[in-house]
Amino acid sequence: LVGAFWEPAAVLADLDLLATLPVDDLRGGLAEMIKHGFIADERTLEIFEADPSAMLDPSSDALAEAVTRSMRVKAGVVSGDLREATSHGTQVGRELLNYGHTLGHAIERRERFTWRHGYAVAVGVAYAALLARNLGHADDAFVERHRRILGSVGLPITYDAGAYEELRATMSLDKKTRGDALRFVLLDAVAAPFIAEAPPETVLRATYEELTR
To answer: Mind listing the pLDDT tens digit for each residue in 136-162?
Structure first.
């Protein structure tokens, strides 16, 4: 807040704390971990796919490994772009962590923040995968992998069909927006990001309609 940036010397995570959380809070956190898997770490996705139920068990070794890997992803991205410079093309810095958040933040605002952040991000991630495919990048299998992994731990992958206009207006307030141009962090494949600048409005709407079906 005062303009000071200082990287931590270490990150300490007490996994015993997870056992004190309601399962919905744990599930919400998994959305960010899945996001980290798609943006940077294939192994995280494999852990989820191997045993989704273990990811909701605070005592499981699988969850511990995934948490560790997730922290490493975030630390790596942040330390490489501490002040969040604007990304261009396939040169994506800290904005990479915003994968799924353009729509996700709009959903949070529409729900007056009664939705857990991770639930909104899960829908946003599912939308981002569809949008990448509809822009000629990712393939159907990549989209389905998003839906399958998110759904396997009980996260939402769709939203209200009548909400597009309100969500679209809110997305214009996204921090990645430059002028009137929406900017999305999207993926060609796992760990292959790019920035989509000002996608056609017709594609944005059609992708949302597909999401809600």
So the answer is: 999 999 999 999 999 999 999 999 999
